[in-house]
Design a protein that fits this description.
Length: about 280
């Protein structure tokens, strides 16, 4: 796979968006996924930590922008801790949108604002252990509770992660539907969450809120395609948008690579891109 060396997008739309961002950074939003984009993918999600240069690179770039945003399926507070973002000078303009925008971390107060837990998610979380046992789920399957707003079933630790993933798609889809939820697939993970909640919805709403004049979005997995689609729709409406793919050690979904204007080498490449933009604007 070829990675960017000069951080020049290979598409006209991407080049136009980069030009717009550099010409008017005060109207630009740089939005980033967390896992796989700022933090390397690890077997245990609780051990994930942002690339050591991520907070510093964001702190250099964010003061030039309308805003920098982290959009993640994790609880906002967890992403802040795992990213080391709290109390960093220069990150006063960083917002962390957790649970696909259902939560928001305020860097000035350090508080997380969040609605009540979704009842369907609460019910599924209680039912899942027995449900997985009843269908003979693969040994090593792991359940992640995302603060009452989503619940994920990971297959990465099983003897055959791909087979386990495929075997669980249909039964988990049926379980989700019974509780008014949908299933969002990722790399070796199936997440059950309320419909109408995704990174695209969160990103579009935030861009409207701040009156963005351009946007850069970086992601690495299937869950980021909703944000890619939101940027594509906004581009059709005249808002310049640059789509970046973080291609790490694991195979990046072809759908992500096909839609990206620029591909970088995992979190280290994303950090290098952020520093490059800060250099250009400094």
């Amino acid at each position: 796979m070829a990675y960017a060396e000069t951080f020049t997008p290979h598409t006209p739309e991407g080049k136009d968006a980069l030009t717009a961002l550099l010409a008017h950074p005060e109207r630009a939003v740089v939005a980033l996924d967390f896992d796989g984009t700022l933090a390397p993918i690890v077997p245990d999600p609780e051990q994930a930590r942002a690339h050591p240069g991520a907070a510093g690179a964001l702190a250099r770039l964010a003061p030039h922008l309308a805003a920098a945003a982290i959009i993640t399926g994790r609880p906002a507070g967890v992403a802040v801790r795992y990213g080391g973002f709290a109390g960093v000078p220069g990150l006063e303009h960083l917002v962390v949108l957790g649970h696909y925008g259902a939560e928001r971390w305020d860097p000035r107060s350090g508080e997380v604002h969040a609605p009540a837990a979704h009842p369907g998610v609460t019910a599924v979380r209680a039912e899942l252990p027995g449900f997985l046992e009843s269908i003979g789920a693969w040994r090593g399957t792991w359940i992640e509770d995302k603060g009452g707003r989503a619940v994920a079933v990971h297959t990465r630790r099983t003897e055959d992660p791909d087979a386990a993933f495929e075997a669980l798609r249909v039964p988990l889809g049926e379980l989700a539907a019974r509780h008014g939820l949908v299933v969002e697939p990722g790399r070796y993970v199936l997440e059950l969450r309320p419909p109408g909640v995704d990174k695209g919805v969160a990103l579009a709403a935030y861009l409207r809120e701040v009156g963005a004049g351009s946007v850069l979005y970086a992601g690495d997995d299937l869950g980021d395609l909703a944000a890619y689609a939101a940027v594509a729709e906004l581009r059709a409406q005249g808002l310049p948008g640059l789509l970046v793919a973080s291609a790490g050690a694991e195979e990046t979904p072809k759908e992500v690579l096909a839609q990206a204007d620029l591909t970088v080498e995992g979190p280290s490449g994303v950090v290098a891109l952020l520093n490059h933009l800060a250099d250009e604007l400094g």
